[in-house]
Structures are given as structure tokens and as C-alpha cells.
Design brief:
It is built from seven helices and 16 strands. It is an alpha/beta fold. The chain starts with a helix and ends in a 13-residue tail after the last helix.
Length: about 350
Amino acid sequence: MTDTRRHWRLLLCALVVAVVAGAVATATPIATADESGTGGTIVVEEGETVDDIEAVAGNVIIEGTVTGDVNALSGNVEINGEVGGDVEAAAGNVELTGDIDGDVSTAGGNVVVADGATIGGSLEAGAGTVTVDGTIDGDATIGAETIALGSDAEIAGDLRYSGTLEGNTDAVAGTITEEGWFDVGMEPTVQPIAEWVFAVYAFVLNLLLGAILLALFPRFSGAVASRVATSPVKSGLAGLAILIGVPILLVAIAITIVGLPITVVGAFLFVLLVWIGVVYGRFAVAAWVLSYAGVGNRWLALVVGLLGGALLGTIPYVGGLLNALIALLGLGALAIGLYASRRGRETGQSATPSSGPTAE
């Protein structure tokens, strides 16, 4: 088996291990949450008091007391205890049976303000079905296919709604206004949580993939870092050529009668190659920079490179451009390395560059 084939087989194994491990890491249940967390189920037990909740989980259950706000992105949200601040939740099902002193903004498949529940502020809800049988001290803005007001419902302010309104309309002390479909403004709630989770998830996956690459291919990884340092222009141009040329080639193959299966497999391998190129690029640039400080630790270079890339991503415009350039360097150096490895195998010569930073 040639070195190139061995590389591809091990790289495919690395991808599978990284994806599975990342999925397991994000699915681990967390029993309790002090202020923030991710997991299968996050619970504030009865008699327990916490400050704020920021959670991304399969289930968020509050039986105790939250003195501040609750921000949740979840499959199910149940608030049976007390919340001293506001509640913002995006979930498949949201059920409120406790007391909430502030406002409630929620989007979900089903939203229930149950009998005995109290919302001290206003309610904004967008869902498939919204049922109100509790007390709302402020206004209610609801967009849903079906809006049901129960016999024990009380809305002290006005009701603005879109959808089909059913039940006890006498529960509304103010005016009832039907309007066209409107959003309930959940973007400010969901977006920061989703971005935070995605950033952590991406960093963990990149770190895991990078660690596997460095462990399985220490010499090849060092050669990639050396190639970026000694031939950045050549590596960048090679990366750009691959990024443009491979998709064009895959489209051309897909046009043929038997080309679609080849294109599907090729697209998967291309995405894998680009991902590895991104990780290698950040590792290589960090190794290059650290070499000027006399530091040659490859593991430190990997962590510094991935953290640096993540931080660059937070800088508007410039950060994205720099990350793209780094990815091109890594992709090009990786491709050149694989080609050189194959050529070296055929000629019986080493393909490892003789100069440049090397990470031990």
C-alpha cells in the first residue's frame, strides 16, 4: 500500500472518530446548572436557587428558583418553580406552571401557560399552538395557528394576535386586536447561544482532528508546517487552485452517466480535505510564529493556532479574510505534501522539506 493511500485511509478514520466524539461530547447529560450549560437535561431541583440560566439542552426543567433571567434553546422547557427575571426560550414545547416576575418571550411548537401560572410582565409567543389558562399581568402578543384561552385565563393588558383565537375572550381586560403575521423577536435570544455553542463545538472538533493528525502523522504534519513557512506563496496558490478546480471537476464528472456516485464520494473527500487543510493551516502558521520565539512544541502550536483562528473569526471582514488565507496555505501545503509523498514513494526518496520550523 502506498503512503498516499495509507494517509487517506487514516484521515478518513480520523474524520469518523472526530465526528462521533464531538457528538457524544455535546450529548452528555448535565444534572444541574448554576448559570450556564449544555447537555441532555439541565435541572434546577426543588429547593435549589441559582442566579441566571443560559442553557442549550434536550430538556430544561426548573423546579426551584432562578433569581435572574432564563435563556434556553431546548427541546422542552418546563418552568414549575419561580423565576425572578425574564424568560426567553426557543423549544419544541414550552410549559409554564410556576411564577415568572418578568417578561416571557418564547417560540416553539406548543406553548402552555397553565392554570396557576403567573407572568408578571408581558407575553410574546410564536408557536403552532398557544394555550393560556394562567395569569398575565401585562400585554400578550401571540402568533399561532391556534390560540386557546382557558376558563381561568387572565390577561390584564391588551391582546394582539395572529391566527385562530378560541375560548374565553372575556379573560382579556384590555383590547383584542387581530393583526397580520408577525415575529416575536427571538433572534436576540437564540443567536448568541447558538453562536457560542457552535464556536465551542467547532473548536473541540478541530482540536480533536488536529490531535489525531499530529499523533498519526507527526513527520507529515511537521512537513506541512515547514512547507507553509518556506513556500507560503506556492502553498497558497496551490490551495486556491484546489479550491476552485476540484468543484469544477466534480460538476463535470456529475454530468456523465455514471458520474454522480463518483461526484458524491468526491465531494465528501473534498470537504474532508478542506477541513484538514483549515486545521493544518492554523497549526502551521502558529508553528511558524512560535519558531521565532524558539518554541517548537507541536501540541502548543496546535492549540495556539486553533484559538487564534477562532479569535480571528470574531473580527469583522479582516478576520474572515485572514482565516481564509490561512486555510488556503494549509490546503495547498497538504495537497503538495500528499503529492510529494506519492512521488517520493515512486522514486524511493523522502518528500520531507529540509528547512523551516518543525514542531516536536
